[in-house]
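Hi R.,

Here's the chain you asked about this morning:
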Amino acid sequence: MKLLFRFEAALATLAYVVALLALLADITARQFFGTSLIHAGKVALFAAIFAGMLGMGLATTSGTHFRPKFADNLFSYFWQKRLQRLGDIFSGLLFLLAAYIAFELVRSSYEIGFLVPVLDWKLWWFQLILPYAFCSNALRHLLFAFSPSIKPTDLDLE
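And here is the predicted structure, written out as tokens:
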């Protein structure tokens, strides 16, 4: 889990750096040279989407994603642990379903030959982050369900 977290954190950081540099270069070109860099905004957008999708897994691994806490004390500790496991199994299966749908989207884009508007880049390359991110999160939740000791808690952040 730590290796996967570090790998995805490094990729997300790199994606944000790419987005930042693309926007900074475009702004600099406009301010100092009176011209805009072609496609800089699109590159920044795709980099930010890539980082955001990876961020979903980073939040899951670190336990920093938002969750409703109003019902935490409705059940005894015994039932809370079982419900958490059940919730992780459900989340893992839901992410697997999302990964399947995302894979079908990528496959369809590949077969049809969709291109990114204006750029004429193959769209499926950029869509690959979707099934990866969903599979990555499915793996995390299923691991949490079968090995609850590795699941982060609110206390891990304090």
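One quick note: The mean pLDDT is 88.

Cheers,
M.
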